[in-house]
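Run log, item B.
One chain of 316 residues. Sequence copied directly from the ordering sheet:
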Amino acid sequence: MKTVKLDRLDVRLLQALDMNSRRSESALARELRTNKSVVNFRIKRLAEGGILRYFYTMVDVMKLGYFGIRVYLKIRGATPGIESRIVRALVKCKNAWWVARIEGEYSVGVVFWVKDVGEFNSFWRDFSARYKRHFRGIALSLYNSMYDFGGFPGGGEKKIYRLVKSESVKVTKNELEVLRRISGDARAPTVKIAESLGLSPLTVAKCIKSLLKKGVIMGFRVMVDTKALGLTLYKANFTLTDLSQYKRMVSFASSHPNVAYIDETTGFADFEVEALFSSHEEFEQFIDEFKKRFSGYIADYSYFAHTRVEKIKHIE
């Protein structure tokens, strides 16, 4: 894939969209000190160039009573066609909110949001019946919490999103329908959402405001093809001698400019961190720095790279 070079305005625009992709082009223009037509042109150019893939809404589904199950799959001897069919089947699953292709010890990763184990088992039995002969390895874990550090890579402001188990909140039928419409398209116009649901634009606006107040909507984001920018998302999985330094590890990773996510799970690694780098050498330097800083507390580690995120949609 050809690496695309962005100018400073492109970078600032993507950073602004990742902070709040629902803002109007006029509001974005004021922040960037340019005009609306330039913002409109730049967004279209970034989309047509494959850099800007889509806009999505960051939803705290745990407030809606969901919990996470994460599965990593290693696919054996499968042709690219078979692997693509497996990925498409996962993307189509309504409970799968994150699906990614992986290079390394696994081939595919997926996180499911479910309200009970039976909901997951129902899908998994059918999915396994179709594709299990292609599996060489499966790693299943409970997905407890996630730090998402927002901020388009390349500097600038970072916004920390934290998904963690909390008490469920009540949402109305209209709020849930609006949430479903806006989840996969954060910039969907209020008028179009209203038309599709048979509601007034004012009602839709009130629903979005209420969902933000309740913390169900955490933010409006942008999905960028970091691969086209020459960046690779590496995931390091650490086995620790003990957990006494866990909070310090979170603090260190949180302050690192390249770190994008910290995952907290049961049944996988003790500490999981994901970061974007332009070369494998940069990633190795990050690992060396981590090991030196926490010398004596790391028993072992493994890593792999995400080659492409196929889906981020918190709720169908």
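Observations after the first pass:
- The radius of gyration is 20 Å.
- The chain has a mean pLDDT of 92.
Flagged for discussion on Thursday.
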